[in-house]
Amino acid sequence: MSKPNFSKILQNLKPDLVIYDMLLPWAEHVVNEHNIPAVKIVTSGAALFSYFFNFLKNPGVEFPFPAIYLPKVEQVKMREMFEKEPDVEDRLAGGNMQITLLCTSRTIEAKYLDYCTDFLNLKVIPVGPPFQDSITNDVDDKELIDWLGTKDENSTVFVCFGSELCLSREDMEEVAFGLELSNVNFIWVARFPKDEEQNLEDVLPKGFLERIGERGRVLDKFAPQPRILNHPSIGGFISHCGWNSVLESLDFGVPIIAMPINNDQPINAKLIVELGVAMEIVRDDDGNIHRGEIAETLKDVITGETGEILRGKDYSKAVSQCQ
């Protein structure tokens, strides 16, 4: 259904150029039928983009930037991802590859952008994020923002793993106990699969909500992430390291406690650790997280000297700078 409708739109609008998402490779074919130039946009960073191409085109050859490494567990996950999505190379490398737009900035990824250009013989143009959410005052968020206003500067951590990712029951328990053991203030957005009816009290450790009291807020609904990250009480962000969340954290100058799960997230996490704006929660050899490690990392960032060091790295203009 999308192709014929898109074709009609092109016929009516007659644009001079079409920028299409790499996830929709069919769009270029439709555009070519109308003799309109098309440019691909990749909604990720250059570190990920170059790592993927090195992985695909130089199998077994080590990526030339040692900061971007993946442990064996993550390498296995990547191989499995490529096996499940055999068209991923075509989506990345297919079509008009003379010019590709990347949602990043030279301020944070200059050497990875240059590697893309040299290795792929490709002109890569950083264009920043596709859009930025405006920070608005919603009456539905008033209680949450008022609660944040009662906390000291940089004393609170925001915990959110994106709009689609749901933690396993085991990981949710470790995160909960990690937050409890850390003794820091927090806002935690706990998401569940759309087809599952869940009650927070049934999923969280018994007595957790009572024990944390006024120190934390656990939400099972949408939260205004940009507004929360921009609040002076927020001193850290436990994140899965999706690219949009990474860019928002850089924009607002909030250190990240990285807890990547899958796909691009492990590489994004390595990048921001390299930039000096994040600490990654260390997993065991089987890829599991543990409450003690979460708690110690949290305390380092929120109440320790590490947080001051991370907050001292200013990339607040990086998101808006395209070149």
Automatic annotation (TrEMBL):
GO molecular function: UDP-glycosyltransferase activity
Keyword Membrane among record annotations: no
UniProt entry keywords in alphabetical sequence: Glycosyltransferase, Transferase
Coiled-coil ranges from the UniProt annotation: none
Highest taxon listed in the record's lineage: Eukaryota
Record-linked PROSITE patterns: UDPGT (PS00375)
PANTHER family in UniProt: GLYCOSYLTRANSFERASE, UDP-GLYCOSYLTRANSFERASES DOMAIN-CONTAINING PROTEIN
GO BP terms: glycoside biosynthetic process
Pfam name, any one: UDPGT
Entry's family note: Belongs to the UDP-glycosyltransferase family.
Annotated source species: Solanum bulbocastanum
Record's protein name: UDP-glucose:glucosyltransferase
